Amino acid sequence: YLSFNGTSDWVNLGRMDLEEATLDITVSLDNINQTSTCFIMGNMENGGMGLRILNGVPRFEVWVGSGYVTVASKTALTKGQKTRLTGTYDGKTISLYVDGELVAHETPTGDFGMPQQNTVMAIGANPIGDTVNGGYTNMKVYYAKVHDQALTAEEIAETTELNSKIWDVSA
Predict the structure, then answer these.
(1) How many CB atoms neighbour CB 166 within 10 A?
(2) What radius of gyration do the chain's Cα atoms show?
(3) Which ranges constitute the DSSP H helices of 55-143?
C-alpha cells in the first residue's frame, strides 16, 4: 500500500479532463478528522469531481450546472478499516458506492464543469493547478484507478469481488 502522512504526501495523477468518469479507490483512514474535509481523490477546482470525507462520511461531488452536486453515504467510516469508495458520473447521474454497494445517487440538470487552472487529478490532497492547496489526508491507499467512463453497478460488483480476493479488503 501507499502510506500518506496527512501533512505533505500526495500523488499527482496528471491532468484528466473527463466529462464522464469513475473514481475508484480502496483506503483506510489513519485519522478521521470530524471537523474538516479529508481529500481522497479528485480534481476539484471550480469544476471537476472528487471523493472526499466530511465529518467521517464519504461523499462524491461533481460540478454540474453552476456548482458542486454532492451524493453522500449515511454512514461514517471507521478509522483503520479498509473501505472501497467508488464515485461514478455518466454525464447524467452521480453515484457513490461504498464497498461495492450503491449508497447514494442523484440526477441533476446542467452541464459538467471542467476544473479550472488546469487542475490535476490528485490522491491524498486538495489540488489546485499542478500543486496542492492543503487538505492532506492521513491514510493508506491499497488500490486506486480512474476510468474514463462510468462503470455500471455490475462492473463495480465484479471488481469489488476481484479486489477483495487480491487485496483482502475485508481485513
Answers:
(1) 12
(2) 14
(3) none
Strand-pair partners of 85: 25, 98
Distance, C-alpha 18 to centroid of its chain: 14
Nearest to 72 by CA among 91, 93, 47, 51: 51
Interval 10-54: pLDDT, tens: 999 999 989 999 999 999 998 876 667 889 999 999 999 999 999
Contact predicate 1/140, CB 8 Å: yes
Residue 108 identity (one-letter amino acid): P
- Asked whether 57 and 33 are in contact (CB, 8 A), the reply is no
Burial of 162 (C-beta count, 10 Å sphere; 0-12/13-18/19+): exposed
Report the distance separating Cα 132 and Cα 114, nearest Å. Answer: 18
* Predicted local distance difference test score (pLDDT) of residue 171: 47
CB 41 within 8 A of CB 123: yes
User: Residue 71: which of 95, 35, 90 has the closest Cα?
Assistant: 95
Rounded Cα distance, 82 and 85, in Å: 10
Taking the model in full, what pTM does it have? 0.93
At 137 the three-state DSSP class reads coil
- What cell was used for 74? 449515511
94 with 19: CB under 8 angstroms? no
Give the pairing type, strands 11-15 and 49-54.
Answer: unpaired
